[in-house]
């Protein structure tokens, strides 16, 4: 066992000499005269304020000692620090009773497996008696192993704890010794065939065994949490199904259960549907969706469904146009926070009463389906705007309007750059530079320059309402798939 292991096991501090001592320690000696090669020499009452400690250090080195230990952690004299560095021999400070520490270290060196077993037992006692959260489990494991534990996602992304060397790669669902020291232990998924998480710690004796205990505790905690989430999701889904069937006249029992769930049936309800275009665990992610909406001040009921979520916001009075538009803006901002899910979002009009939840959610689902083909709106469709847009679009698809529209926008098509799409998005987002920039993925200054160029090429003023309407209709014809 080397000096670095002893530092970890006994809470010792390097007061002087190598900061990462690697010398092997073969025994503990309480008297300088009996010290030999590889010993840790323990001084119970040294004179740290004079040259005498320097002399003791020199004697220890001459005898081949691996390190010197003194009581306390107060700084050494400068001369002692320089001497320890020159002799490459660490001087260790002991915050606890040096005699008790020496006895414990002697047992540790003689029987290291006993100490590993003790730490594993401590890990079981700390982690098996409760169902800690992932953060609590990491903190408990770090305390037992006496080293910071890092928690990684299955793909290696950092979740908790200090960063690890970027060269460290974890893949197979088996324990892995890491290059440069350390160990990675997988927290297996419920089926036990893949790693749900990884626990990683720098090399320390006993760390692997303690992490295995922590991994088992984390797996149990995640499994229980998953069962709890699935139970809540089934309960919410069943309650919503009953509400949708009950319409405007839910019975007393249904009203009571809705109240217990925190759902308001009276008032005005504005539905939202969030679809995802790839397979995801909607049950596990429901909490993240709620948090994302809350971060944008959207206080909504959220229920997981196949392929996404439905949500609705309830108000006491009918929201006016400004309030609805404000909510749509907040939902769009929340959608951008969910960019990693590539969500398709539909938002309905407000509807009143218990049956209004069903009517609004039905509209929201239709809007979300249409959002899949509306890249120019950022895959977001609001029914209030959709109805008028669809009506106008049907009117514009005539033999006389189509050639006129294409001629109107011809100057944009001839210019390099996607000016027609920029104009379409700009008008769809109610002439908002910020929203247009977000949809197109460019800077707002870039949008401003493009809009100025469009006005110049077309010879129009986009602050004029009639001009905006004509161009909006023309864009719809010029880009028929949007």
UniProtKB/TrEMBL annotation:
Gene3D superfamilies: PucR C-terminal helix-turn-helix domain (1.10.10.2840). Coiled coil: none annotated. Residues 419-477 form the PucR C-terminal helix-turn-helix domain. It comes from the Bacteria. Residues 248-370 form the CdaR GGDEF-like domain. Belongs to the CdaR family. This is PucR family transcriptional regulator.
């Amino acid at each position: 066992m080397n000096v670095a292991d002893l530092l970890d096991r006994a809470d010792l501090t390097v007061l002087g000499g190598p900061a990462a001592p690697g010398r092997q320690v073969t025994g503990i000696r309480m008297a300088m005269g009996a010290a030999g090669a590889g010993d840790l020499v323990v001084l119970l009452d040294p004179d740290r304020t004079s040259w005498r400690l320097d002399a003791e250090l020199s004697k220890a080195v001459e005898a081949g000692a691996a390190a010197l230990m003194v009581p306390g952690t107060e700084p050494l004299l400068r001369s002692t620090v320089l001497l320890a560095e020159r002799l490459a021999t660490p001087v260790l400070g002991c915050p606890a009773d040096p005699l008790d520490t020496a006895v414990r270290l002697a047992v540790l060196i003689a029987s290291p497996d006993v100490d590993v077993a003790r730490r594993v037992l401590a890990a079981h006692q700390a982690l098996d008696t409760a169902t800690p959260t992932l953060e609590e489990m990491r903190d408990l494991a770090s305390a037992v192993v006496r080293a910071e534990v890092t928690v990684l996602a299955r793909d290696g992304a950092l979740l908790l704890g200090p960063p690890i060397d970027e060269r460290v790669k974890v893949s197979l669902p088996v324990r892995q010794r890491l290059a440069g020291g350390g160990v990675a232990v997988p927290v297996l998924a419920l089926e036990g065939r893949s790693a749900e998480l990884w626990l990683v710690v720098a090399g320390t004796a006993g760390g692997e065994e303690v992490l295995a205990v922590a991994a088992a505790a984390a797996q149990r905690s995640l499994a229980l949490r998953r069962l709890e989430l699935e139970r809540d999701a089934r309960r919410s889904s069943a309650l919503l199904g009953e509400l949708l069937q009950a319409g405007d006249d839910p019975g007393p029992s249904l009203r009571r259960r809705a109240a217990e769930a925190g759902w308001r049936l009276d008032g005005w309800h504005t539905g939202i549907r969030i679809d995802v275009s790839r397979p995801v665990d909607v049950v596990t992610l429901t909490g993240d969706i709620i948090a994302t909406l809350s971060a944008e001040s959207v206080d909504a009921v959220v229920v997981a469904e196949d392929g996404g979520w439905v949500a609705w916001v309830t108000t006491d009075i009918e929201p006016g146009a400004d309030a609805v538009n404000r909510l749509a803006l907040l939902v769009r901002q929340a959608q951008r926070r969910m960019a990693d899910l590539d969500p398709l979002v539909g938002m309905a009009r407000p509807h009143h009463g218990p049956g209004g939840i069903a009517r609004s959610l039905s509209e929201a689902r239709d809007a979300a389906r249409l959002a899949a083909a509306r890249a120019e709106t950022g895959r977001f469709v609001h029914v209030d705007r959709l109805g008028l847009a669809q009506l106008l679009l049907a009117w514009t698809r005539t033999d006389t309007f189509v050639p006129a529209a294409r001629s109107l926008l011809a100057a944009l098509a001839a210019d390099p750059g996607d000016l027609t799409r920029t104009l379409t998005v700009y008008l769809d987002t109610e002439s908002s530079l910020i929203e247009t920039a977000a949809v197109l993925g460019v800077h707002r200054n870039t949008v401003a320059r493009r809009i100025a160029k469009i006005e110049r090429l077309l010879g129009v003023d986009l602050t004029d309402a009639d001009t905006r309407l004509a161009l909006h209709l023309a864009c719809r014809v010029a880009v028929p798939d949007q």
